[in-house]
Amino acid sequence: MTSAMPPSTKSKVLIVDDDHYTRTLLDRLIGKSADVRLAADGAEARKLFTAEDFNLVLMDQRLPADNGIELLREFRARRPRLVSILMTGYADVREAVAAVREGVFDYLNKPFEDLETLEAVIGKALELDRAYREIDDLRARLGDGTPAVIGRSPAMEQMLGQVRQVAGLDTTVLLEGESGTGKDVVAKLIHAWSPRAAKPFMEVNCGALPESLLESLLFGYEKGAFTGASVASAGYFEKANGGNLFLDEIADMSPKLQSNLLRVLQDHQCMRIGSTQPRQADFRLICATNRALAGEVKAGRFREDLFYRINVVAVRLPPLRERAGDVILLATHFLEHFNAKFGKSCGPLTPAAVRMLEAAQWPGNVRELQHCIERAVALHPGGPIDTMHLCPGDVPPAVGAAQSETTSGPAAYEEARALFERDYLKCILDAAGGNVSEAARLSGIPRQNLYVRMKRWGVVTDQ
Ligand SMILES: Nc1ncnc2c1ncn2[C@@H]1O[C@H](COP(=O)(O)OP(=O)(O)OP(=O)(O)O)[C@@H](O)[C@H]1O
Per the database record, which ranges form the Response regulatory domain (predicted)? Predict the structure, then answer.
C-alpha cells in the first residue's frame, strides 16, 4: 500500500470540513503519520492557516459560511505553491474539475469509497509539497551561482558526497554515466567547489570536433603554423591557466591526440602547433564518458596508460531510473524554470501526471525529462499539467507491459492492480467510443464513480 506520509518528517495537514464524521475519519487515517489540525468552518481555517505553515490542505467544497474553492483561492493568493485537495460531493464534480484547472492538486469525492486511493492521493500531494520545498532549500543553499544539481535520492547523495570530497583536491576526476545523467553540470559543480573556482573553466567535447580542430583548440598554434593561422592563438591547456579543463566524451579522442594528451599530463607542459617552445600547463583535468572507459581499453580503442592517468578518481553518475524520488523534484524544478523562461504559469502536476513521470524509464535520463517538461510548458496555455500534456512517446505507454517484461520480478499487488485499472479504463472507454455514460453501462460501474477513476488516471480530463 502506498504510504500517505513521508517516513521521516511529520507533515502538517489542515483538514477543513463541517462534517464531524469526515474530520474524524481523516484524522484517524493520517493523524498517526502527520501533524493534523482540524477546522469546522472557514473562520477557524483562516486562523489556523495564518498561524502555521501547512504542507497540505484538505478542503471541503461546501462550508457553512464559505465556499471551499474560494477559500483555497484565498489561501493560494497568500501561498502560491500551496498544495491542496478539494473534497466534494458528486453533484459538484464540474466545479471541482474547474478548481483543479486553477491549481488545486486533486479532488476527492465524498463519501470516500476507497481509503487506499485516498491515502495514495494524499501521499502524492505531500510528495509535490516536498519537491517544492526541497527546491527552495537547494536554491537557497546554491544562491551563489553554483550550478543547481538537483537530487536527494540515496544514489545522488552518495555521488554528490564523492564530488564534495574530490572537488577540493587537485586530482584528475573521471565522470562516468549514461547520456543525459548530468556529467556536464557535475563537472561545473566540481569547478565551483574547487580552490580553482576563481580561475577559468574550459570545456570541450572531444566527440564533436574533427581531430585537427580539436588539436588546435587544445594546443593552440603559432602564426603560420597551417593555412588560415593568421595570428597565434593559445590553446585550452594554456587558457585553463590555474583552473579546470573539462574534456567531455574523452573516449572519442583519436589515438594521436590521446598520446599527445598523455604527454601533457606527464610533463605539465604543452607546445603550440608550429612551435618548439614548451609552455606551462597548469590545469586540473576533469573527463567524462558515457561509455565504460575500461571496456574501450579492452577493445583497443583507448590507450591503457592514458586510462590509468585519467582514472584516478572515478565518479559514477546514476541513471535517472535508479534515483527513486528525484523525478518529481527535477520535474518541478524544470516546470518552474520553463514557466519563468516562457512567461507562463503551468502546473501543478496532477496526481496522474506524477504517477506517469515516476513510472517512466527515462532512457535519455535527466535531459529527456527536461525536454518533456519544456515541451509541456511550451505547448500548454497554462494550468495543471496532466498526462496528456506530457510526451507519451517518452513515457512507455504500457508501463504495465514494460514492467511485466522486466527481469526484476513481478510487480507489487497494488502496482499491478493500479496498472490493470488504468488499462481497463482505457479499454472500456475505447469500447464505448469515448462516451463515459456508455462506458459506465458496459462496465456496470456507476458513471460518477467511473468518471472519477478515469480522471485520476488521465484517461479523461474533463466532463
Ligand atoms: N541533477 C540535475 N539537476 C538539474 N539539472 C540537471 C541535472 N542533471 C542534468 N541536468 C540537466 O539535464 C541536461 C543534461 O545534462 P548534462 O548535459 O550535464 O548530461 P551529460 O551526462 O553531460 O550528457 P551527455 O553524455 O549526453 O553529454 C542539462 O540541461 C542539465 O542542466
Answer: 12-125
